[in-house]
């Protein structure tokens, strides 16, 4: 475990409440433990996983499209949180073994992401709301027990920072402004690709209109179909995307937009 870098800690404190905090937090965390990749995800029990930050350099689109579009429900960390996992530091291999998951899951995960080892830091932000920070290594070098113990000793500090930035009752989402004049085009592209590979063409059209705030009647008029047909499409697309409400669908779309637009 590396010593605490006071400069990076100061940067994280100064970034509290701003869109740059996730990046500053990532810098602090990577100074504490040696890892090649880092991913932050917000998770509300019973809701979708929400993208916060990553520094992935390869296979990024594949990982995000699959994970945020429903694969997170198979993640040993999310499964463990639903079963009452306490805040702490856990290895992916350890959690998967405790849950009796097939070795095929790990093999597929490491093949698809290019990671060889993963360590997860779990922080409770408030009741039912969590922050998961996944640290990956691209070489088969396990995170040792001493490294894990050292990170656990820093857990109170990291929890205090995260709870101050994401107070109880707020959505675990802090985005850096994308800048530029092409955000409208990015949103339109994200709407057009939302649910691709999981939804039928008509279901994708309904989903895009739902996240734009249209009700069943307006969607029916826009697409030239009946309200009953809209309701059926809505039911099916909710099931395929693993959501149960318009707000959950919108949270899923935000994650998709962030991934598709490459927002840091």
Automatic annotation (TrEMBL):
The keyword Transcription applies. PANTHER family: DNA-BINDING TRANSCRIPTIONAL ACTIVATOR DEVR_DOSR. GO terms for molecular function: DNA binding. Keywords: DNA-binding, Transcription, Transcription regulation. It comes from the Bacteria. InterPro entries: Sig_transdc_resp-reg_C-effctor, Tscrpt_reg_LuxR_C, WH-like_DNA-bd_sf. This is LuxR family transcriptional regulator. Coiled coil: none annotated.
């Amino acid at each position: 475990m590396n010593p605490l870098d006071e400069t990076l800690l100061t940067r994280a404190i100064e970034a509290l409440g701003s869109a740059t905090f996730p990046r500053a937090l990532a810098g602090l965390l990577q100074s504490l433990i040696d890892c090649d990749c880092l991913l932050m995800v917000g998770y509300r029990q019973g809701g979708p996983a929400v993208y916060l930050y990553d520094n992935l350099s390869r296979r990024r689109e594949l990982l995000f499209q699959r994970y945020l579009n429903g694969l997170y429900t198979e993640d040993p960390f999310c499964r463990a949180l639903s079963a009452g996992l306490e805040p702490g530091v856990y290895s992916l291999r350890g959690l998967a073994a405790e849950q009796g998951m097939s070795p095929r899951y790990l093999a597929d995960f490491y093949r698809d992401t290019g990671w060889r080892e993963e360590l997860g830091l779990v922080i409770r932000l408030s009741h039912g709301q969590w922050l998961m920070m996944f640290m990956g290594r691209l070489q088969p070098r396990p995170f040792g027990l001493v490294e894990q113990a050292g990170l656990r000793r820093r857990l109170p500090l990291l929890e205090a920072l995260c709870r101050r930035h994401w107070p109880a009752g707020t959505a675990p989402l802090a985005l850096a402004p994308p800048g530029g004049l092409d955000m409208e085009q990015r949103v339109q592209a994200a709407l057009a690709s939302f649910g691709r590979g999981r939804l039928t063409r008509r279901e994708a059209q309904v989903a895009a209109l739902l996240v734009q705030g249209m009700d069943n009647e307006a969607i029916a008029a826009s697409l030239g179909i009946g309200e009953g047909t809209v309701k059926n499409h809505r039911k099916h697309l909710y099931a395929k995307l693993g959501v149960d409400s318009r707000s959950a669908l919108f949270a899923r779309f935000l994650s998709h937009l962030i991934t598709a637009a490459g927002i840091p």
